[in-house]
Amino acid sequence: MDAPSFDGARRAASRTGIKHLTSRLKPIHLTLALIVVVGAFMAIGNDQFLSLYNINTILDFGAILLIAALGQMFVILIGGIDLSVGGTISLVSVVFITLVHRIGYWAYPCCLALGLALGYINGVILTRVKIPSFIATLGTGGIITSLAYLVSPRPVSAAPGDYWLLDIVNGTVFSISNVFIIGALVFCAVAVFLRFTRTGRNIYFVGSNIRMAWMSGTDIAQSRNVPFMISGVCAALVGIIISSVRFGGDPVVGTSYVLNSIAAVVVGGTALTGGAGGVLNVLFGTLFLSMLDNGMNVIGVDQYFQQAIYGAMIIFGVAVTFDRKKTPIIK
């Protein structure tokens, strides 16, 4: 064999080996690698990054984002998107603080019911009015945000006499914060729902191939409504938690959670086209974003430069975790 043909064969074998290796790596493995690399870089930049206090801070912040991202995950699994998450969080934030002073503990179920109702409206617009979820939730998100301003055009603080009512969120159990426990419970509930219920399995089925799901007798309307309702409840729970932690509500507090919840889902490797991904993908995607956000503050990155780094890391994270086999055409 002459030299040129030998080199060509060697390059072909090398490409085959790399392709075989990358085909065996799942998006979640790449997300884990990103977590390790970013964590190591932050730890080198500041030795307090891995301190117990800072780790608890990352986990508590991550638990809040995880709840919002898990709700967003349901919608993305059916091939949709929920842009009203931020509006729901903001509305519930001010409504909760207003209600907790008047009706006490009943404010918790009332606000969760409000999130459920808002999610149901989004689902109905998609399934009955036949408007794509991007446009539908963009519109309802604006309406809900306006409602938040109508309830309270400025931040509202909880009365000192109502602080004890917020201990459900602000308390601890065996030195573990209730925020973290709530996030863990939601994670477990979502995992069980997706794996062991017919509706959970149908969500994957509809997201993978809606035509085949319809031909097999799957209730398409229900399978597309439920994700939006769950997303609404998760957003409402986030609004309650944020208000309790801050001892006050804010009509714009949910703004950042729209893109962050989507980023956490996609960076973890859940396909935007639907039908692929799951709770572990969202968990690691959330951990990556929480670590990145906290780490930039710990190592002293300029706040005006943080958003640029955050955006670049999201693009990089999606680039290395996105499963292109499930999306042959990028639109």
Automatic annotation (TrEMBL):
It holds the Pfam family BPD_transp_2. It is found in: Cell membrane. It is a multi-pass membrane protein. Its main location: membrane. Keywords: Cell inner membrane, Cell membrane, Membrane, Transmembrane, Transmembrane helix, Transport. The chain crosses the membrane at residues 28-45, 51-70, 77-100, 106-126, 133-152, 172-196, 226-245, 257-284, 304-322. InterPro entries: ABC_transp_permease. This is Ribose transport system permease protein/putative xylitol transport system permease protein.
